[in-house]
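Hello,

Our lab assistant flagged a job as stuck in the queue for most of the afternoon. It eventually completed. Since we weren't sure the result was trustworthy after the delay, we are filing this so someone can double-check. Below is the sequence as submitted and the structure that was eventually returned. Let us know if re-running is recommended.
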Amino acid sequence: MQIIKISLISIASACLFNPVMAQAGNYDSAVKEANASIDKAKAVNYEWRDSRKLLKKAEALNKKGKNKKAMKLVAKAKKQGELAVAQAAQQSGVTGPHN
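-- returned structure --
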């Protein structure tokens, strides 16, 4: 009887913590993707000012357990990196007094 209780407890805890571990993996991979996106923007000298600040805020939120808000900020930072690269490409042919 006691073995059955222990088995049920371990199964229940595995079920409860599995989504948390999955979210942690998703968060980590999302941060890596966002950093890669921002690094591409930096490589073309178009890194936006707030992109890495968003990742720092996301890290703080994630540590507090506010995963949804953290993931939104990570997605926003990634998008900023992508938009910065697009901006660099769009403005690469611009000529004017600033050149």
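-- support follow-up --
The delay was a queue issue, not a problem with the job. The result is valid. The chain has three helices and no strands. The chain has a mean pLDDT of 83.
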